[in-house]
Amino acid sequence: MTTTITKTFHVDHSIDDTWNNLTNPNQVVVCVPGATLTSKVDENNYNGEVELKVGPVKAKYNGLITFLERDAATKKMSLKGVGTDSKGKGGAEMKMDGQLTEKDGGTEVNVSMEVNITGMLAQFGSRLINDVTNQVFDQFVNNFKNQLAGKEVNTTLNAGSLMGGVVKGIFGKK
Amino acid sequence: MIQCKTSKAISGMGHSMKRKEDARFLQGKGHYVDDIKLPGMLYMDIVRSPYAYAKIKSINSEEAMKVPGVVAVVTGRDLEKYNLHWMPTLMSDTQMVLPTDTVMYQAQEVCAVIATSRYAARDGREAVRVEYEPMKPVIDPYKAMDANAPVLRSDKEGKKDNHIWNWKVGNKEKTDKVFDTAEVVVKQHMHIPRIHVASIETCGCVADYDKVNNHLTMYMTTQAPHAIRTVIALVAGHVGLTEEKVRVVSPDIGGGFGGKVPVYPGYVIAIAVSFLVGKPVKWIEDRSENLQADSFARDYHITVEMAGTKAGKIQATRFKVLADHGYTDASANPSKFNTGLFSIATGSYDYDTSYMEADAVYTNKPPGGVAYRCSFRVTEAVHAIERITDRFAFEIGKDPAQLRMDNFIKKEDFPWKSPTGWIYDSGDYHAGLKKAMEAIGYDELRKEQAEKRKKGELMGIGISTFTEIVGAGPSKDFDILGIKMFDSAEIRVHPTGKAIARFGTKSQGQGHETTYAQIIAEELGIPAENIQIEEGDTDTAPYGLGTYASRSTPTAGAAASIAARKLRDKARKIAAYLLEVSEDDLEWEPGKFSVKGAPEKSKTIQEIVFAAYTNHPQGMEAGFEATHYYDPPNLTFPSGAYICVVDIDKETGAINVRRFVAIDDCGHIINPMIVQGQVHGGLTQGIAPAMYEELIYDEDGNILNGTFMDYLVPTAVESPHWETGHVVTPSPHHPIGAKGVGESPTVGSPPAIVNAIVDALSPYGITHMDIPVTPYKVWKALKDKGAI
Q1: Which residues of B are catalytic?
Q2: What's the predicted TM-score (pTM) here?
Q3: Which domain covers residue B528, as residue numbers?
Q4: Which of A69, B68, B431, B683 has a CA 20 to 30 Å removed from the CA of B731?
């Protein structure tokens, strides 16, 4: 099942700073709760993992994150992640498109995210996935803003939420 | 009012005798397959595919084998060594037991974990690592028919598309001609969605192979134990499990509804593992496995057309069906009937022209197409004809009840030959509908509706006047895997006049232990409470094809009656001997023979039976036993007239079924209380697909409602008060004139509900709603029409 969410938000930073942050894998990935980079394959490809819990189902997706586009001139980027659950419970695909424009002395960030989930998470969590994706996205936006402002990035969802992320690896617990 | 020939003490036909089996069921003393515990028994759990279509790259059982208690992980490759990795379906298609390379639907069995406890087996299942390479599945059956669609069954040599079969019946040329010149033609496309049978007990088995004696005892949830024994022998005969070495036992079953007819891979794996390790193996599905993987019902995409005159005479019908069978055709139809008995779709109306065509297709969904409380696709057929009949009435502006009355087959015209070749045995459709209209107060309701419409309130009245076709079936046309669809009864009466009777059928809650006893009581006069009924053990019961599709009363019930009559003939001979008169001088009344004109000279059936063991006439065979295998001369054709009244909340779309009247004609009634119970259950299983149930798949083949949290089964809260009644036209060819009733309400009620809802919405130009009709669909339809 596929869920698409689009959000537009404003940051008080220059378009170049914002662009550098958004297109730097080490920076952008940790803004996604529960996500972590594990290794670099080449300039455009990275191995990573995302841990999710929706209702009764816990899934850990190992996969490949690929930058499909990073056009500094037009400030357009596109990122794709493909992963399968390590316990064979299913798979997930995520495509994220970002577009930056200068506005009111800062930058307007327009991000759309398309998440496609197969397997147990889709079976049991279909009613929740929209909400969960939305929450994750909101937290991503907060983290991204905080990161730009040099503040702490919260990589786990608040306790009691539908989804708790557990981040492992070198970027996990800074 | 039902006339009883026997006293209450005997409780033959027509008595509302309390169900004999309820003493144990109500006290929690039923004995189901999961109650079976054998020494040394192992437990099996199954790893299932999260993908609808994927290649299996590897199965790693290393971690699973470390789980304490796990003794083996069985894969398709393991079974392949014994050629047990695939099996035939009841429709002579093929199905994987366990895959060797590719999974074809979500929740398909991938491998099995065997352990010393159920918990260990489940833990082991969680520890198995399977690596998949997902592929893009084909979910939409219409897309599966595209020329460029990927060929799913590439395992079949030479298979170049996803088409399974094409079926047609009727006269195409004649039908087209009527349609070309008809004054009125109405056409409707509809989907009868995939649904789940939702029996309380899931499927399971205990396979117990005894190495020393080379003997397999298979305890399992099956509606057809004898057929299963034969199938096991056919599939596993090559490894030494020939039919005399196999015993199938069906213990108490917690609901079947067609879902316990097919052979599921879990059964076969359990047998294979027990055979290899020489220990009993238990497998019990959990609720989600049952819901996601087992045979579905329905999933027919139907285009139906009706041609007629402006005055309201039905002249012809035309049907085009696309049947989505999922990964394999695992229906359980009689062999010659690809679409089951769909050709009953011409309905209860007197016209002679129809043409039907169906195509079946493979998709990446679970396999099946079982008859869920429906005699082989009759639910789909009835929905199509009853919906299009309403559309026709609406189109020409005629009251749907009047249109039906004007077109019904007349009771004096039975036996009546349908345009698709069936010989309807008997019926009185006018009487049924009249009774239903009187019971519900039809004319008053129409007046009320007119008043409400003026105020903008939504109220609808829906009718369904259906003809069922059950009791498969005559050996001329009906078989499953070549075995003719007769059924059997064996009666043994003990010296003291009490009896045991065994049958080739298997009750799953229908009440056979009571109704069969009542049939024998009717014929022999032995009190029903003194007749013990046994079914489900292939070592003791006579061979039969089992219980599904409302066939038990029409076939095994008839067999019981005829076997009992054979015994009554013998009783007459013994009575004549004991009373020293000629047989012709004897008169039978339930329970005794007496001398004509001298009623004080008589012998009770108990005295006669005692003599059969202690003082039988010279030259006569001793004992008092009889067996009959009944091959029905025709099917039986129960019918019904159902009327439903709904009120709809315009703002929320919420549908309230205010009243529901069901008048059934199931021929002579064996036990009115049991029939009423069957009708109540069946009506509830009719409101289910009409308003709540549907197995929903997304484009990736994920089932989106794979638990009872999301798959809505109606409860007592959702069920309206059912008002029931009867018209009785006995089946002329059935020994006791019975027709069968189990399915009628499930088959007949959905179109009554939908017709009522559409009737309520019709002022806004709404002419059809696909089932399940949910409040959201109603609200959206009203919104789209600008009504709210």
Answers
A1: 223, 373-374, 743
A2: 0.93
A3: 22-30+487-630
A4: B683
